[in-house]
Amino acid sequence: MSLELLSSQKSFGGWHNRYRHRSATLQCDMVLAVYLPPQAEPDAKLPVLYWLSGLTCSDENFMQKAGAQRLAAELGLVLVAPDTSPRGPDVPGDPDGAWDFGHGAGFYLNATEQPWAQHYHMHDYVVQELPALVEANFPVNDKRGISGHSMGGHGALVCALRNPGRYRSLSAFAPIANPSSCPWGEKAFTRYLGADRDAWRGWDACALLAERPARHLPILVDQGDADSFLDVQLKPAVLQAAAAAVGQPLTLRLQPGYDHSYWFVASFIDDHLRHHAAALHG
Amino acid sequence: MSLELLSSQKSFGGWHNRYRHRSATLQCDMVLAVYLPPQAEPDAKLPVLYWLSGLTCSDENFMQKAGAQRLAAELGLVLVAPDTSPRGPDVPGDPDGAWDFGHGAGFYLNATEQPWAQHYHMHDYVVQELPALVEANFPVNDKRGISGHSMGGHGALVCALRNPGRYRSLSAFAPIANPSSCPWGEKAFTRYLGADRDAWRGWDACALLAERPARHLPILVDQGDADSFLDVQLKPAVLQAAAAAVGQPLTLRLQPGYDHSYWFVASFIDDHLRHHAAALHG
Fold this sequence. Notes:
2 copies of one chain form a homodimer. Chain A is α/β, with parallel strands linked by helices and about 280 residues long. The first copy, chain A, has a single domain (about 5-280), classed as Rossmann fold (3-Layer(aba) Sandwich), CATH 3.40.50. The first copy, chain A, is about 35% helix and about 25% strand. The interface of A and B includes residues 65, 67 and 69 of A.
């Protein structure tokens, strides 16, 4: 569980660090970014917000573009951004070189089908190995929040709903809310999980909500109404209906004029940070 | 003076737009980014902050990484970020493909030497053509501020000092403060301006301050003290001495632990935006 420091840069009175480590879960080297706010003194115990990024992203996109560090520094939140899939020459990618599967597109699940099953266990990496690594190496406590964007919004919802009690706060930006019934999800789930759609239910936020709502965990979701992926890929209305059916607290905000980009994320990240901080510092 | 809209994305209630236009000054097509805050209604007259980026940058780095739009939206400031040099297949670049000269490295001057003199007139582009374009196409007034980073900090200082009255506010992050006596500047000035160092004085903030201080224009400069370029390339102490010698108001803040990156810029951009807004809205 050792971390190799790749870079360390002062930011908003804290430090933006990047690390490489060998992941036993993914059987490859992984890079992650950690923002340590100024409160991260050696004897501190700070809560951690895990951020899961979307298709094609690495650990860098959120940290560089979301503008989250300013308020995280004020709120005393550690931010952790892992990569979006296993990587490396030994990790198989999309056979056609597509950007929506394989490298950069791990979908935060545990693959069962070959050749993906050896490396593509991003769920276990995010939920188990990564927090263990973070909690062993940084001045943090075990109060965890999780959020993400697009594929990472799906990941945040699924990681929290599958693991009751593991996260104290949950939010998402433009999540792939119902991957079992959208092209991105159907392509990924068919390959990673096989053709049997029953096996998909454990990896779909809408199906999970029906079976195991997390009524103690209010969910904040922002979605731009000018997002070009809204109707075909994201389907927030299905999530809203699934939440309503089981009494799951969900605030879905349709933000007029916003698209799917990090300009949208940056515009509302402060609200999400405050949503998480309220639960994590409580 | 027509602008071709390349993209338009909602951000913090306003719009982040990118445009292409034909520059008569530079004799090539140029791309620029404009952030229009929510106050930019058709009948508004908002002040404009021009941002000049550093070596290797385009119009994108500042807009994506500095986190300036959040407060610009609150303060009602239009942000304009041009490219850092003329571009295109007809524009000669560094003969050795170096990153510190030519494309991405126009140094905000008017070149006099061949083959650079045909296109490399970034000073006139930034000071004349760009404001004329912006003021003809957007709901802005003629209250202009200017700032920048590294090579762009040099550019901001030089553009403001050479053109009294044209800018109402001035600041810089880690500027190349004395380019006549640092490797980046000596390489660029020798090629763009020739070997006669007398011709360099009009493009060096320290030399300009001695000849024509702008005592009505207080300058805010931030500089990280862990910046690896500090002693050899940037030389803020020379700027500070030049300002003190002529009574030029200059606030130089050495920020402990910060490097040369956009993490540094993002950490202090709010102070600069407030510095500019105070003068521009006054």
